[in-house]
């Protein structure tokens, strides 16, 4: 892989006596879209926190070549700042309304610039959160179950939006999800976390959009990796 944006080598993360990540290795290429699946408690969010630089008490190395933005399941907007000010919060040009408006147009929320976050729907708030992440033009975008709290139709619309934004901005993406179908639609590569490290990798075919039929076989294999009997929820 030419100059990976993420290089993780023998990463170990312990909480007290408990080893959550155990000699984990991972490379992500520039502009690559990777989905990370794993059973509840397998350490997905822990890995994202390490990559975001929020947890540095680890053994091994986790290097990121460039800037990182994170979007979480909960949008985490500041309720006392209008939507546009949330987007540019902390940027060096954080009074730059034009920057915020461009980002809002990209997530199709132009008319919401002057609203308060608490007046937004869940899907709208999540789009603001994406705009805030992308306005920093990150080399790596970490998405921690960003669509998990949304209804099914909104989630489908978000998938299309994220794919558009990914094509426009071309960050590498690491998406944590419980939804195998979401991973199949969005990712170039699906990784399965178990026993503290990557236990399976599935490379998905190009070009996009792939056909549903092409997904069926990979879907079965990912579910088997997760120890889920097909037909049962992951
Ligand atoms: N700050 C902490 N202190 C102690 N234990 C923690 C801490 N953070 C996470 N853990 C433990 O580490 C394990 C992995 O947690 P993590 O949140 O990374 O899992 P996950 O795969 O993201 O789970 P889920 O899919 O349910 O969100 C869990 O057993 C959790 O209880």
TrEMBL record:
PROSITE patterns referenced in this protein's UniProt entry, alphabetically: ABC_TRANSPORTER_1, ABC_TRANSPORTER_2
Keywords: ATP-binding, Cell membrane, Membrane, Nucleotide-binding, Translocase, Transport
Domain of life: Bacteria
Claim: Nucleotidyltransferase is one of the keywords in the record: no
Annotated ranges, domain ABC transporter: 6-220
Pfam families: ABC_tran
Molecular function via GO: ATP binding
Protein's name according to its UniProt entry: ABC transporter ATP-binding protein
């Amino acid at each position: 892989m030419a100059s990976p944006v993420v290089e993780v080598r023998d990463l170990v993360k312990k909480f007290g006596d408990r080893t959550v990540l155990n000699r984990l290795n991972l490379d992500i290429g520039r502009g690559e879209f990777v989905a990370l699946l794993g059973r509840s408690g397998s350490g997905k969010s822990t890995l994202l926190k390490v990559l975001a630089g929020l947890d540095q008490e680890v053994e091994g190395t986790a290097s990121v070549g460039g800037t990182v933005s994170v979007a979480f399941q909960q949008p985490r907007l500041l309720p006392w700042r209008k939507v546009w000010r949330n987007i540019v919060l902390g940027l060096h040009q954080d009074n730059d309304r034009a920057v915020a408006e461009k980002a809002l147009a990209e997530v199709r929320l132009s008319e919401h610039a002057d609203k308060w976050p608490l007046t937004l729907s869940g899907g709208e708030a999540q789009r603001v959160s994406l705009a805030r992440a992308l306005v920093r033009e990150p080399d790596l975008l970490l998405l921690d179950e960003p669509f998990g709290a949304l209804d099914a139709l909104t989630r489908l619309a978000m998938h299309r939006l994220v794919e558009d934004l990914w094509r426009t901005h071309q960050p590498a993406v690491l998406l944590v999800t419980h939804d195998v179908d979401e991973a199949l639609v969005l990712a170039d590569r699906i990784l399965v976390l178990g026993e503290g490290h990557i236990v399976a990798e599935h490379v998905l075919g190009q070009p996009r959009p792939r056909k549903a039929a092409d997904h069926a076989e990979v879907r079965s294999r990912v579910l088997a990796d997760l120890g889920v009997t097909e037909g049962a929820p992951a």
